[in-house]
Amino acid sequence: MALIGFEAFCEGGGERLGGAARLGPAGALLEASGGSVVGLLEGADALGSPPVSALLEIAERWRAFDRWRARAKASGLPSEVVALTRSPAQLEALEAIEARLGAGRVTGAVFEVMDAACRAALRDGSVRGEATAAAIAAAASDAQAAATVGSAGRFRPEEVQGPRWLAWRRAQQEGWLEVSFELPEGVALQQAQVRGGLAGEEAEEVAAAVEAAISGGLIEAELDARALGEALSEGGLAYRGLLTAPPLGVGSAAAIFVGAPRQPIGAARVDGEGRLVESVSIEDGPWWEERLGAWIGEQAVEGWVVPTSAVDRGRLGKVRGLLPKVPTVIKPAGLSAAREGVGGEGMAREVASAVVLARRALAPMAQWGAVDPVLLGLVEYQNDLDPGRLRAALEDVRAAALFERGRGAEVVHAAAVIGQRRLNPLVSSLPDLRPGMTLDVQVTNLVSFGAFVTFGLETEGLIHISELSERRLVSPSEVVRIGQQLKARVIEVDLKRQRVSLSLRPAPQEGRPRAGGGAKADAMAKLQQMFKK
To answer: Which fold has domain 252-362?
Structure first.
């Protein structure tokens, strides 16, 4: 079967990537490198030096093309019909339609009917998640069952966010949720008549086959693909933030690792090259704060490092309070793998973890890049994703970051930085907060809809992407980075839900509320409810 090439596969969506003039040569480079983005980056000059983000998108599209091509070669559908498809799921749906209608009856017109009906179903249909009796029975004692029951409902497919869909898929596999789809009434028949030019029994027969294929897997596949795309994008954003964080740039640093309750705390002092100078392991007990405080007081270091989070959040908060300066926060992900590179036979796990945190602060690119990115847990519901596709996307991000550093590119983060001091010493609890207050905050995580920050309490705050800048942003990483220290304004405190919303934007003038403020607040509340655990 003669198949279309990469340029044709991208037709209609590849113009902003340079069209055939760029996609053809880019496809050849990717073909030669087995899909590796490295070859594409090395050939960037020959492609007109497009932005690295465009090259990453081209690489992801090429992999989608390669998956489609492998599936298309095994299809018995006519070449002219195969050429209209853009995913293995569409091919499978057409094959299901052919099995129902009979060989030779799937034409380009039938594809148009299916495609239009599917888009209408995503826009105007509904997807329903209904908790099973088992989930309802277990909800009183099982948090996951309770979450499943709470997430049930009916939505338009295009409104279902990726994390919710992935949660539904997991609950569906575990037998706690039944998922069903409802197409807009008569949409397939209407499309058969309008786009297919069919009438009478033939139109009804094609419409029935199309409806069965859409409900039987195509909508599900479309939502799977969208959720995967969102997850890969968010994971890539988080990974890029780790890799491109500026080095601490000090001659010595000390890191303190806090793990689970009752486990020892590890502390380590390293020199500017990350070599261990001194360490201590402090058992949990009534005097741990005094012991750690004494050790901290003995260290003449230029920078302090702590994890962004810990299972024992209470002790982590107390550790922060013991430090003389605001620490650099480092994500404690992939520590098991990273500890293998820490020398010293018999070194305690908690001390090795502290050394890893310190080295990551001193040399982010080298230290984060040395660990398999899939082990870093950068994506919510990561275990429900294809690990191969996730690894390929994250390795693309790493290759791009290394490429940009090799070219001398520098990531600019436009935001004010506060001095190295303790965060908000006068704020001891959430009731101390009031809308309009200005807080010293530190970014702990970036997600597609904003930035999570710490301001000195166990509860973190959210700066929604619309509150990060006066200009419209595509990604939070355009203006902030993990570990960055900022001044943010409190815009809402929800004591019942333990949620704090903040902003980097100037306060609106009195009597002149910001346009769309109510809708934005509603959107922020929905996003917080859906994504914040």
So the answer is: Nucleotidyltransferase; domain 5 (3.30.420)
Using the structure block, give the residue that is written with the tokens 């520098």. 410
**Gap between the Cα atoms of 206 and 101, Å rounded:** 7
40 HSE (CA, 13 A, CB side): 31
**Paired tokens of 266:** 């590890």
Global confidence as pTM: 0.74
Asked if residues 460 and 533 have their Cβ atoms less than 8 Å apart, the reply is no
Would the CA dihedral through 129, 132, 134, 138 be positive or negative? positive
Q: What are the tens digits of pLDDT across the range 336-385? A: 999 987 866 678 999 999 999 999 999 999 999 999 999 998 887 888 88
Quickly list DSSP for 239-295: HHHHHTSPP---SEEEEEE--STTSPEEEEEEETT--EEEEEEE-SSTTHHHHHHHH
Q: Are 27 and 40 in contact (CB under 8 A)?
A: no
Identity of the residue numbered 285: G
Each residue of 374-413: b (16+ CB within 10 Å) or e?
bebebbbbbebbeeebbebbbbbbbbbbebbeeeeeebeb
Q: Which CATH number fits domain 430-531: 2.40.50.140, 1.20.1440.230, 3.40.50.2300, 3.10.20.90?
A: 2.40.50.140
Eight-class DSSP state of 130: E
Tokens of 381: 């519901």
